[in-house]
Amino acid sequence: MSMTIDARALEKRDLLYLAADGGQGVYQALHANGWNTLIARSIEEARTLADTRRLSLGLVEFDSLPSSKALLGLAGNCPPDMHWIALLKSDSLCRHEVREEVSQVCYDYHTLPIDLDRLQITLGHALGMASLRRRQRHSTKNDNPSLGLVGNSLALKALRQRITRLAVSDAPVMIAGESGTGKELTARALHHLSRRSEGPFVAVNCGALPASLIQSELFGYERGAFSGANQRVIGKIESANRGTLFLDEIGDLPQQLQVNLLRVLQEHSIQRVGGHVDIPLDLRILAATHIDLERAVAEGRFREDLYYRLNVLHLEMPPLRERVEDIELLAEYFFEAHAKEKRGGIRGLSPKAVKAMRLHAWPGNVRELINRMRGAMAVSEHALITPEDLGLGHLMQEAGGYSLEQIRAQAEIGALKRSLSQSSGTISLAAKRLGISRATLYRLMDKHGLQVAADGSNPQAAPPRLDNVAQYVPTPRKTSPCSAASAPPAPRQRVQEAAACSLRPPQRGGHYRR
């Protein structure tokens, strides 16, 4: 039975319909039900209409395409946020290459003969999601530019609100969070929203400066203060006067410098190395750390009085795994930001790539996402970036029959193992590959029961040596992956199930969605 919708109750919804024969029957039915249908009889015509009309939704007769890879080429040359629905015969899904292409490019599919009611539901849902995605991208681009924090998750919205509240104060702020979560970006946002926004923002990585130079770098020095000091040099702290000083990795600051910094906070002045004159300062100090400073205080590695001086206000950065809904927006943002680095012909991300990114645990957080996107843009040979281009192809193979948490844990373990192997067991190199700190790497290894041995001959018998290891040994863990029978199939798994056509033909109007 056909359902008729009052077109007056609906706005005209634009739809691109690619049909070699003109598809007049489908065109008339859709037009009568509120769809402003634009017909294209060739791929070239479809590309032109999609670009000039800024369309969000396309319906394509898959079996009329000139080649099996034509759909990939079409989607790759249309706006990246356009959703495609494939019309195809049931037996076409028996072919592996068809299932692969449809699942990689299309938002959904509909099997012939056409069920108009079901097709309209599919089209309406796809258009709604495409419009929502476009609005999300638009709102992201129009976020407060002084924040520069991309995403619409609840965690990020709460962070933005807290940044806005804390920016009006001059009190020190401690920004805590894992490596790669954007602590410096947050510090810059605090500065730009503050009354000091016209003044300098000076960032110092305390962990990157040699111990022998850090005092002169921070405090500056007078001429003749030491051998080679031929002229007066202004230090980082003094350079931030009337602005904001950001001390990243504050937990790596040597003990003696902790005393000097405490004096700056107490007296609001400094003395250059080799000098005897107090130089007054008017600045705000922001500090960041990826380590547990309270634990460092308890162990005597960080001064308690300095900790409380710096931790007047506190900001906690959410890791990327807690902002899953932001991953696609971030990926698209970095795709556009690094557009000059991409290989010609790449138009965006495939649905499978987006799914793989949502499954990945992201131990290196946003920094890892940037690195994977830039690498994929440089090497991909496809119009749309695939999971393999991102180095996440294994996630799609392992996804069946497992819960989301189990998949993320497997991805995290796999990333740790690969980095350790590629770094010949050197912890510092493995951490650098992942874009995380040594402390975070140790924590993740402990979380998953990963041990390392001094040599590969009898790794389980040897006590762990995490500083220079030759082999890692997973500690047995009791896990029981969900069986396929106990969990519903993944949305796109239905496309794979269609391979068993001889046993169970696909039903009309089948669905899968990302």
From TrEMBL:
Question: What InterPro entries is this protein classified in?
Answer: AAA+_ATPase (IPR003593), AAA_lid_NorR (IPR058031), CheY-like_superfamily (IPR011006), Homeodomain-like_sf (IPR009057), HTH_Fis (IPR002197), P-loop_NTPase (IPR027417), Sigma_54_int (IPR002078), Sigma_54_int_dom_CS (IPR025944)
Q: Which residue numbers delimit the Sigma-54 factor interaction domain?
A: 149-378
CDD domains of this UniProt entry? AAA (cd00009)
* Biological process according to GO: regulation of DNA-templated transcription
* Keywords noted in UniProt: ATP-binding, Nucleotide-binding, Transcription, Transcription regulation
Molecular functions (GO terms): ATP binding; sequence-specific DNA binding
Region span, Disordered: 471-514
Give any Pfam family that matches.
Answer: HTH_8
PANTHER family per record: TRANSCRIPTIONAL REGULATOR-RELATED (PTHR32071:SF120), TRANSCRIPTIONAL REGULATORY PROTEIN (PTHR32071)
The name on file for this protein is Sigma-54 factor interaction domain-containing protein
* Organism encoding this protein: Lamprobacter modestohalophilus
Q: List the lineage, top down.
A: Bacteria, Pseudomonadati, Pseudomonadota, Gammaproteobacteria, Chromatiales
